[in-house]
Write a structure and sequence with these properties.
- 24% of the residues lie in helices and 27% in strands.
- By secondary structure, it is of the alpha/beta class.
- The strands form 7 sheets. The protein has a 6-stranded parallel beta sheet. Strands 4-1-7-8 form a 4-stranded mixed beta sheet, with no helix packed on it. It has a 4-stranded antiparallel beta sheet with strand order 3-2-5-6, with no helix packed on it.
- Helix 7 packs parallel to helix 8 and helix 8 (337-350) runs parallel beside helix 10.
- The radius of gyration is 31 Å and the shape is elongated.
- The termini are far apart.
């Protein structure tokens, strides 16, 4: 009887014993890198390898883990780390880059994307009247004006849409102003202090990541922001030093120095850089470039009669070294889009290339309407000339001219190396 009473007592005690604590709640956290095979570390959860979609899914993350940090290592990308990443309750998707649900989604976290390892573009070298890449590849400048781009970059604007459009269209060189204080607005280096110089290599890299070379015009509207020749020399020297390691950079001293607002009293005292291909600067439309000529020449035809013919032909005739017609008539001043095709083709055949000029380019905004149509024609014209034509002997094919063609030019004997300039 006592034995039975003892068992009952033990059972009674067991019935009133505290239950073991429930396991802490868990949830799944998926980190979407977009890179298959990436190694993803989530502090508080461990390390996983991203699957074929670039996603690393941590299936059992404590609900109490509301803040963490994430690191990612992936071949071809810079090492990545984001601290103080907030994790909402429940299952969560963490996206590296855009694409995580709607902006107000409570289960999505958007983080900056992985950044590819930067591979510099090969430098351009002078190869007679054209440029060659230091790797030996042929090159013709298919350029566009993008005057306001560096100002936008320094002001924190996202310039990647403009860079992407230019690169996708087929442009390979952007002409960007480093200063102005006039019709284009105000962009004065002294307003930015040291930042103006220290961020210039980063700006060049942003272009290089899109496969774009940079022609950086240092002085414009100089009389409106810098009149001391010694300060001008010091500014030029600092720019030269800032871009010396930017393999995609070309320098142009001054824009149209013969215009009163662009007068540059320091011009005779500026030194041609040893490392970076540089132009001494341009004068106004149809005027010879600034002399003495440096590594290459910059020539303008904007507003000139038969400008689309002169872009390539007149540029070629100036000097045996590379000549780039880097400012030409805009579409709003000549709506015949075939002129833009022919101008670019002529420059690709006869000179080192040329620049498409437009109001969209002056403002560094996306091309649209007539500007876009003319830009497309410009690239198509430049790309219509095979690069091997650069080595051919120049011939003026008067026998092919008449009522349809204003001029016909050829290099060598290959029929593919004939450019017909229409009226």
């Amino acid at each position: 009887m006592k034995h039975i009473q003892l068992v009952l007592a033990l059972v009674a005690v067991g019935c009133h014993a505290p239950k073991p604590p429930a396991p802490p709640p868990i949830r799944a956290v998926a980190v979407v890198t977009g890179v298959p095979g990436a190694s993803v570390y989530l502090d508080g959860a461990g390390t996983l390898v991203a699957d074929s979609t670039g996603t690393a899914t941590f299936p059992a993350v404590a609900e109490s883990l509301t803040f963490t940090y994430i690191t990612v290592a992936a071949t071809g990308y810079n090492d990545y780390r984001q601290d103080a990443v907030g994790l909402p309750h429940g299952n969560v998707q963490v996206w590296l880059g855009r694409g995580c649900g709607l902006p107000d989604s409570k289960q999505c976290v958007n983080l900056p994307p992985l950044v590819t390892v930067f591979v510099p573009l090969p430098r351009l070298q002078v190869g007679g009247r054209v440029f060659r890449k230091e790797t030996g590849e042929r090159f013709t400048a298919i350029e566009t004006s993008d005057f306001d781009l560096y100002r936008q970059f320094l002001n924190g604007s996202d310039i990647t849409p403009v860079l992407g459009q230019r690169a996708n269209l087929g442009f390979n060189l952007l002409r960007v102003f480093g200063s102005f204080n006039g019709a284009l607005g105000r962009f004065v280096p002294s307003d930015y202090g040291e930042l103006w110089y220290t961020r210039l290599p980063q700006f060049a890299e942003a272009l290089a990541r899109k496969g774009l070379y940079l022609e950086f015009t240092v002085f414009a509207d100089a009389t409106q922001w810098s009149t001391d020749p010694q300060q001008q020399v010091a500014h030029w020297n600092r720019v030269v030093d800032a871009v010396k390691n930017s393999t995609n950079a070309l320098l142009e001293v001054v824009n149209e120095v013969d215009q009163p607002i662009n007068r540059l009293d320091s011009l005779p005292n500026l030194t041609m850089p040893a490392t970076t291909n540089s132009s001494h600067g341009s004068n106004g439309s149809q005027a010879l470039p600034v002399q003495p000529f440096w590594h290459y020449l910059t020539f303008h035809t904007n507003g000139a009669p038969e400008w689309w013919r002169k872009v390539g032909h007149n540029c070629m005739e100036i000097d045996p070294r590379p000549c780039v017609a880097n400012e030409n008539t805009r579409p709003d001043d000549d709506g015949q889009v075939h002129h833009f095709y022919d101008a670019a083709a002529g420059a690709a055949l006869l000179a080192a290339g040329a620049a498409f000029h437009s109001n969209s380019g002056k403002a560094s905004v996306l091309f649209g309407g007539l500007d876009l149509e003319a830009a497309q024609q410009w690239v198509a014209g430049a790309q219509s000339v095979p690069l091997h034509c650069q080595d051919g002997l120049y011939v003026h094919r008067q026998d092919l001219e008449g009522t349809t063609y204003l001029r016909v030019y050829q290099r060598g004997s290959d029929p593919a190396c004939i450019v017909r300039i229409r009226f």
